[in-house]
Amino acid sequence: MRTSDQRNDSSAADIGGPATAMPRSTSSQIAEGIGRLAGSSTGIARQADSRYRFAIIIVLGAVATAGYLYYGQPNVAEPPTPTQAAAPDAGTITVHVSGAVARPGLVEIPWSGRVADAIAAAGGSMPTADLTTLNLAASLRDGEQVVVPQVSRASISGTSYPSDGRVRLNAASATELEAIPGVGPVLAGRIVAVREERGGFTTLEDLLDVAGIGEAKLAAMRDLVVVP
Predict the structure, then answer these.
(1) Per-residue pLDDT at 93
(2) Distance between CA 98 and CA 160 in Å, rounded?
(3) Would the pTM count as exceeding 0.90?
């Protein structure tokens, strides 16, 4: 026969048996839940890590592509920008006018000047000039020469060459004066300049006023020229 204490222990054992069994089952479930949560956290961490690496790869690829596009392309020189042709200098040009003109030599005319302008700058043509052989409207360039021809001596009505062959000092051009022995282009130009300044020569001795003509040269020219 069990005592009261034994019955109490037995009752406590009956009551405690199931009570102690539930906590162990609950602990297992909690542990299992924690394990699953840890596994899920690990998976999430792995996925996040994978996404992070993927994002880094994308950023690095974009940087590499941009660098190649900026630095890797060959430098291609841009074609020169077409420029309009420079307008000619609105200045003057220098041409040489010789032949049957009043003042042969170097003259300056506008850059758009014509042959007629050059002849005018040289004092105009002489009466013996043959302008029919020239294109008076032709354009000129710097450094060109214009030669004004003269009509043949046979067609001259005694203006520069008398019948005896002497040169008329007051009618001859500088080119015709160069036909006199000892008279070159420079001296012929001086003779024409003094003649125009004085309005013509009156005597042969007036040639002594021309620089470069002395008594000896005048004596050599005396029989070759005539002053009407």
Answers:
(1) 95
(2) 17
(3) no
